[in-house]
Design a protein that fits this description.
Oligomer: single chain
Largest sheet: 2 strands, antiparallel
Number of helices: 14
Strand content: under 5%
GO biological process, one term: protein K6-linked ubiquitination
Keywords: ANK repeat, Repeat
Radius of gyration: 23 Å
GO molecular function, one term: ubiquitin-protein transferase activity
Strand order of the largest sheet: 1-2
Amino acid sequence: MPPGDSFHFRVQRGLGPWSNTLAATTKDDQAPMVALHRAISQGLPHRARKFLSQRPLAVDVPDRAGRTALLLSVLRGDPDLVYLLLNAGADPNHPAEGAAHRTPLMVAAHLGAPALCRALRDRGARWDVRDRNLCTALHYAVSGTGAPGRPGASLTGGGGGTAAAAAREDVVRMALEDGADVHVQDSYGWTPLMRAVMLDASVRVLELLLQAGASSGPRQPQRDKQGHSALHLAALSGRQDVAALLARHGADLRAKSVHGHSARELGRCWPLSLADGANKGGVDATLAVAAAASTMLKKRAARRKQDELEDQIL
């Protein structure tokens, strides 16, 4: 191929499934491609439009960080650029080639941007696509902005005011109306409901999930890899309002985890807020605290059993 050409291809490993459509350009086209991504990052639609008129097939070529121009426009929060790229044929399901493998819809959902989510959804973006941690866009929708006043706005936790909370609710409602799966579990075993509990989502977001069938009751006792249900996680995080909400939707406060602990026991034995841990250290730090809680309760149970044996001997 001559220098400066763009091409699309798909790959298949053995007899496995075909990959998403990939785009690339020959090496000598690197400078113009940088110009496209720079135009998007700087909010210069006229430059982006000029480039795409000359090389329309290069719309999905990623930058050196693995991000497409569409993903950059979503990160910028610019609906005009998003529509420009979608009209130019950008793939709304093209994931970033970085570590997380996030799609534009996942990023827009996390940012709590209903206008961007609607634009992507209307052009074929799917809620069921998963990233490398098996999260869907609904997982991202519930785990961004939490209660008002929470610090941060990263992809591991966040915060915002009343307007931001209302926008997030709109995104979650949109996903549920489109049929997003409320029972899908990520690599940690968390459903969107569990993730919402642990990352301090608003009570209204939790209510929307529960109304869509994300029950934590005995008919659907989904557990994470630590054996905790949404109710156990609410008790671990010290969110009494959420525990009460889940109980009203059928969750059993006496139900035992795989480690033999009820939500009541977890609430009494582990007062540390896991939501605070999530804001400080992200999901991994939150899981570490949950694992420590289970370990601590196991040790307490072992000591209690040993005391009982000693009492019998005496």
